[in-house]
Amino acid sequence: MANTGKDGRKRMKKRGQMAEAWARMKTQPIAVVSLAVVAVLVLVAIFADLIVPYSKAITQVASDKLLPPGTAGHILGTDGFGRDMFARIIHGTRTALEIGLISAGASIVISTFLACLCATVGGWVDNLIMRFIDVVSCIPSLVMALAICAALGNGIPQLVFALFFTGLPMHTKMVRSVALGVAKMEYVESAVALGAKPGYIMMRHMIPNLASVIIINGTAQVSMNIMMGATLGFVGLGVKAPTPEWGTMLADGLSYMLRNQYMVLVPGLVLALAALFINSLGDSLRDALDPQLKGRA
Amino acid sequence: MAKYIIKRILMVPVLLLLIAMFVFFLLNLSEADPVLMMMPAEYSQEDYDEMAERFGLDKPKPVQFVNWVKSAVTGEFGTSYKSKAAVSDEVLYRIPVSLKLAGVTTLLMILIGVPMGVMCAVKQYSVYDNIVNIAAKFMGSIPGFWLGLMLILVFSVNLHWLPSFGMKSWKSWILPVFTFLLPYLANYLRQVRSAMLDCIRQDYVRTSRSKGQKESVVIFRDALKNALLPIITLTGGTFASMIGGAVMIEQVFAFPGIGYKVLEGINNRDMPVILACTIILALFTIGAQLIIDILYAVVDPRIRSSFAGKKKVKKEISTAGGTN
Amino acid sequence: MGEKLLEIKDYSVRFTTDKVISRAVSHVNLSVDKGEVLGLVGETGAGKTTTALSVMGLLPKYAVETEGKIIFDGQELTGMKERQYRNIRGKRISMIFQDPMTSLNPVFRVGDQIADVIKIHNPKISQTEVNKRVDDIMRMVGIAKERKSEYPHQFSGGMKQRVMIAIAIAGNPDLLIADEPTTALDVTIQAQVIKMMRSLQKELGSSVILITHDLGIVANFCDKVAIMYAGEIVESGTLEDIFDKSREHHPYTEGLFASLPNITERTERLTPIKGLTPHPSELPAGCKFHPRCPKCSEICSQGDTPPQKQKETHMVQCHQIHEEEM
Q1: Which terminal CB of chain A, N or C, has fewer other CB atoms within 10 Å?
Q2: Is residue B73 part of a domain?
Q3: Quick one: B182 and B40 in the same domain?
Q4: Does B317 map to a domain?
Q5: Of C188, C139, C126, whose CA–CA distance to C165 is shortest?
Q6: pLDDT tens digits for B117-142?
Q7: How would you classify the pairing of strands C232-238 and C308-311?
Q8: Distance from A12 to chain B by nearest Cα, in Å?
Q9: Of A84 and C106, which is predicted with more confidence?
Q10: Are the C-beta atoms of residues C12 and C27 closer than 8 Å to each other?
């Protein structure tokens, strides 16, 4: 009984922490702008079909090849296949966020689970997981993602899996180091002493305490994965051919780069800006959740 | 310490073997038949069998792997499916190129990033700090390969100042190094800044000031030596991620390094080449990690004495005390 | 006693964080004579350390406003150029910080950290001379000179504080500020350190400002005492003025004494001061102590700070005390 009371209080405190972080964030103009831009990105991704039909992004119109930006009906021009650049950018947003969010989300869920397992169970489980991670993290992440994509072939699910797997080691390491600290806390030790099962400790004690590190790393991972997804697309190992995707658009533009510079300029700029604002949102979240990190003189 | 380093070095072959095994497993998830990829458009079953036998691809997978390991031990790293030549001849000469690219970039990153980051920390919230911070945030979000393309457009295509690809003269290094450097430098100096900020706020910095120490010595000796610990970790971590990032830079600038080759190998599903390149890249990562650990012990006396037994500590002190 | 060495005149410090103004120190008047030991007593957050850092010129530069004057040996420290100030720090005024665990630089040998002070203020001195002086100072604070090539992590807490003291006295300063020098130490070590500081003070003849919340240490060590509460000096005087129970005292001082265990008088329980020190951004009007004061009357919560009542060396800042009764 005493235990539930304690947890109740702890959860309230946690909600308080999130509310406090939000209050801190609201006062920072950069944070608000970043949040707004990311919100717009998400809305564009969700309502892409309302903005411009998907068919426009994939239909090849032979007569409309390489129209410059500003042409009537093609605000950003058309590519080498006569596809509307604007439609491809908009639907590319959906692809990018889909890839980034799902892969980063999966990485975080699984790595948090693994990290908590390491921290609560310890022993050979911890050893096995960590040794595997030691081995895997010696392979540069881009090379690993490339190899997985090469093995599994092109397509969004394959790409998501590659990015998910690549992000796993670093996350597990980071979350585990925080989780180990939490596992040493007295309230966790007392719960263990009272006979609580690892699963209970994980849900009740670990996850709430890991929330801020998960949110911070998660945001960074989303932008990293969007960037890496585009990188893979750029070398031809990402999504399947007609799917609108920023990296693939860059690669398509490569052969026309000398005369039609907008074809590499636009998708790259969109990619860079998306990454910038997601990163910036991540930084603001970190400052808001962990004000000591920001610190004052 | 020496014992620890030797132990770490002895572990390297085991680690490499495990990495090779993992990559081999990963690439075999592919359903594509490597023999088929090597065959001309028209071929007979006999041709196919002959090709499979020539590359040992008729054997079971574990045997294939053992054969590759045997070949790797002799230094040949198997035969490339694509060029039919020994992988070592195609890969080894690229090692210096890649090391030079990553090395020069890392060096520049340290030389520019540390002073700039330290200045930001010292002048926290000043105009300089804000400008550098925002610029770094921006630069850190630019995908390296796209930046490379843009620089090629400006400096090679439009201005004709610098070559856009290959490795002809020192000029060929400018764009790749710059492209490589910028995003990493941006993130690096921001992290140096925050490491330094942590140290500047410490009590011992105040103690140093209370002695009447000059501010420059307080910052660049007393605070920076402490900040070196996180900075070393950062530098090592950045170097490790650069090894991966180099793949794209080498690709964009057609630079004959390991990264270029690994991508070529992946596109051709050329297993021996991929394995060899991955092993070499992993070796770079492991080497960087080892150097970090050693540097750590050099800078931090606490770590040094955690390695040494009590007797050794005394000995070190008495000899060091003599030179003091 | 003799000449005035340090004089703090109507000195105030305000911090601004997140648009919230904190009055850390307000209208403080203090003076220390040559060879004198002043005890600065108060709870955590009373502004003792801020006052000490002001004398050292080490307040953070960011979001800080100060008012009033600090005069040291005829020179005005407030507003002094950094270059000039550096010649005073470490050489003429030095400070022992509260936490020896974090105040020593972990990556330098302790001998070098002591030698720094000597080298900074004597640029032309030879290395042999520096070594000799370091050895002398280490002997004075009771550390074997062989340990000078060790690093701080190899020292215990008490030994670290000895190193801190060695650093502070290495420049042979006229004024030594000791900011709770024993708070972070074990009780048994505290006595040793205080004993050593007292003999060092006699040997060197320096003036000392001892910041503490331990009245026992004050009774043992100090000539003069100033009691600080919420950034103000509420009572000051000689050791006799403050420790004489037959006289009138500030209710806060009385509270401090009442919360001390007493071996000679057998009391059933200690009387704590009720409530907490207010945060410097939320100070009450009138007397800052009135919400916690047992003698509080209506006048206490009104207007500005209560008037200071003075009788010879003894000063009390309280509405409830009248000069004729002191």
Answers
A1: N
A2: no
A3: no
A4: no
A5: C139
A6: 999 999 888 899 999 988 998 888 88
A7: unpaired
A8: 31
A9: C106
A10: yes
Question: pTM of this prediction?
Answer: 0.81
What homologous superfamily is domain A13-53+87-293 in, according to CATH?
MetI-like (1.10.3720.10)
Residues 254-293 of B with CB under 8 A from A: 262-263, 266-267, 269, 274, 277-278, 281-282, 285-286
Nearest Cα neighbor of C39 from C189, C181, C250, C191 is: C181
Q: Is residue B140 included in any domain, yes or no?
A: yes
In DSSP terms, which residues pair with C306 in a beta bridge? none
- The CA-atom distances, in angstroms, between C249 and each of A104, C211, C253, C257, C305 are 66, 20, 6, 10, 17
Distance CA(C20)–CA(C149), nearest Å, equals 46
B15 and B144 co-located in one domain:
no
Average pLDDT over residues B168-196: 88
Residue of A nearest to C61 (CA): A297
B227 found inside a domain: yes
Contact pairs from chain A to chain B, CB under 8 Å: 121
Q: How many domains does chain B have?
A: 2
CA of A29, closest CA in chain C: separation in Å? 15
Question: Of B67, B82, B112, which residue is a domain's last?
Answer: B67
Say if residue B261 is in the same domain as residue B152: yes
Contact C167/C97 with Cβ under 8 angstroms? no
8 Å CB contact of A297 and C60? yes
Query: Do the chains contact at B150 and A265, CB–CB below 8 Å?
Result: yes
Question: What are C's interface residues with B at a Cβ cutoff of 8 A?
Answer: 56, 58, 62, 82, 86-91, 94-95, 97, 99, 102-109, 111-112, 116-117, 120-121, 131, 146, 148-151, 153-154, 164, 167, 171
With a pLDDT cut of 90, the percent of chain C lying above it is 37
Q: Is C62 on the interface with A (CB under 8 A)?
A: yes
Query: Which of B67, B83, B102 is the C-terminal boundary of a domain?
Result: B67
Residue C135 is predicted with a pLDDT of 93
Q: What does the alpha-carbon distance between residue C326 and residue C315 come to, in Å, rounded to a whole number?
A: 9
Task: Tell me the three state secondary structure of residue C61.
Answer: coil
Q: Does B18 contact chain A (CB < 8 Å)?
A: yes
Higher pLDDT, C271 or C139: C139
For residues C163 and C293, which has the higher predicted lDDT (pLDDT)? Answer: C163
pLDDT band for position B308 (cuts 50, 70, 90): low
Let me know whether B162 and B59 are in one domain: no
Residue C201 and residue C214 in contact, taking contact as beta carbons nearer than 8 Å: no
The reply to whether B63 and B205 lie within a common domain is: no
- Work out the burial of residue A55: count CB atoms within 10 Å of its CB; fewer than 13 is exposed, 13-18 middle, 19 or more buried: exposed
DSSP state of B215: H
How many B/C residue pairs have CB atoms within 8 Å? 93
Same domain, B302 and B158: yes
| Alpha-carbon span A160 to A30, nearest angstrom | 30
User: CA of A22, closest CA in chain C: separation in Å?
Assistant: 16
Strand order across the C207-212 sheet: C93-96, C175-179, C207-212, C37-41, C224-229, C232-238, C314-317, C308-311
Do B236 and B176 have their domain in common?
Answer: yes
- CATH (domain of B157): 1.10.3720.10
List all chains that touch chain C, counting a touch as 3 or more CB pairs closer than 8 Å: A, B
Q: Which chains touch A (3 or more CB pairs under 8 A)?
A: B, C
Separation in Å, CA C221 to CA B29, C34, C47, C62, C193: 79, 15, 21, 35, 12
> Could you tell me the domains of chain C?
4-92+173-325 (3.40.50.300)
Q: Where in the sequence is the domain holding B257, given as residue range(s)?
A: 94-311
- B241 & B135 share domain: yes
State ipTM: 0.87
Contacts of residue A11, defined as CB under 8 A and 6 or more positions apart, other chains included, come to A208
| Those residues with Cβ within 8 angstroms of residue C202's Cβ, 6 or more apart along the chain or in another chain | none
